[in-house]
Amino acid sequence: MAEAQNSPTSGFATAGGPPPVGSTTAGAIAVAVEADSTVATRMSAPPSFDVADFPVPHGREEEWRFTPLERLRGLHDGTAVATGDGVKVAVDAPEGVIVETVGRDDARLGKAGTPVDRVAAQAYSAFERASVVTVPKETVLTEPIRIAVHGEGGVAYGHQVIELGAFAEAVVVIDHTGDAVLAANVDYILGDGAKLTVVSVQDWDDKAVHAGQHNALVGRDASLKSIIVTFGGDLVRLHPRVNYAGPGGEVEMFGLYFTEKGQHQEHRLFVDHNVPHCKSNVIYKGALQGENAHAVWIGDVLIEAAAEGTDTYEMNRNLVLTDGARVDSVPNLEIETGEIVGAGHASATGRFDDEQLFYLMARGIPEHEARRLVVRGFFAELVQQIGVPDIEERLIAKIEQELEASVA
């Protein structure tokens, strides 16, 4: 294995760089489900790399109305200044993978997508050096690339690029741990016929804040599997976005989140079917427990007029384990052509199934064990999608740890 150890400035802004330019109620369950609204009206400003093109949000904007701005610790208004103790990044890659630290003028930066809100634009404007991981064309990796992002208590802005050449195949694990206030953009660039599985784990400490935009550019006949897992942090707000560079692209987007007391976890997805004969499948599942646990899922899919032959589906399911938690689930589907294979969306939120619990307890299984089995079953299909055994085992252990804490 070839290992590259990056300094805190590798892909993340530090001191001396460019200056960075309503909540839950105590009810049992609050659910918002909205459909048939257009994606275009959901952004208050057009995409831009310039932070000045985005006004400071006030919480009334469509894309910010669920986010508690005061908990972003200044990432949204320019008051969060990068420090030298923000995060450290370490890349562990198999032979044949190229790991680089590049300057802001590298042509690959921003190729996969443009910032769509002020925090993402701030991250792009403020980083000094970026990490670029390249898998050359026709290279098929048998071991995953592992990127460790560890917070050390400060503020950081960053940019990472994962690029696969034509017909390359790779699995990438991006693991976020520690404590930090982080805004970062991650770009995935897939060449024609490439296959990428990327697992992004947010296992932050309790006080961490993480806002990120993930941009994917999927080449002709290429396939992307994205798995986002969110457990820790005070506030996590992620914005995965997909565009297709040619026909035949296939995208699977899976998400798993466990929202605890007082946590805010927000996932805002956008899939732009802009070319013909592409597929997308989105499945996100979340479990919530504790007072003021708040999960937000926004799923936007746009099928443009040129995207004939599109096949797409998105689903969000939420399991509320205790009173005092809130879920906002908003699927949106906009179709500009009738020449498609299929398109649909679904959203469901419910309490813990007392009948399932009773069934198991009637067969001699203790209540806490029965609850554990039901929640494990709820998440099982998504955990199995990861395909990296040590990560799967770690996530199952994390789920059980969260459940044990609720029993205690």
Characterise the protein shown here:
Residues 1-12 have a biased composition (Polar residues). It comes from Streptomyces leeuwenhoekii. InterPro entries: Fe-S_cluster_assembly_SufBD (IPR055346), SUF_FeS_clus_asmbl_SufBD_core (IPR000825), SUF_FeS_clus_asmbl_SufBD_sf (IPR037284), SUF_FeS_clus_asmbl_SufD (IPR011542). Belongs to the iron-sulfur cluster assembly SufBD family. Residues 1-20 are annotated as: Disordered. This protein has 408 residues and is mainly β. The protein folds into 2 domains: 2-351, no CATH class; 353-408, no CATH class. 13% of the residues lie in helices and 42% in strands. The chain contains 4 helices and 18 strands. It has an 18-stranded mixed sheet that branches. α3 runs antiparallel to α4. The longest helix has 19 residues, at 389-407. It starts with a strand and ends with a helix. Mean pLDDT is 87; it is low at 1-38.
Topology of helices and strands:
Layout: E1 2-6, E2 31-32, E3 87-93, E4 98-102, H1 118-126, E5 130-135, E6 145-164, E7 169-190, E8 195-202, E9 209-218, E10 223-230, E11 235-244, E12 250-259, E13 264-273, E14 279-288, E15 294-303, E16 311-320, E17 326-335, E18 342-351, H2 354-361, H3 367-383, H4 389-407
Parallel strand pairs: 2-17, 5-6, 6-7, 7-8, 7-9, 8-10, 9-11, 10-12, 11-13, 12-14, 13-15, 14-16, 15-17, 16-18
Antiparallel strand pairs: 1-3, 3-6, 4-5
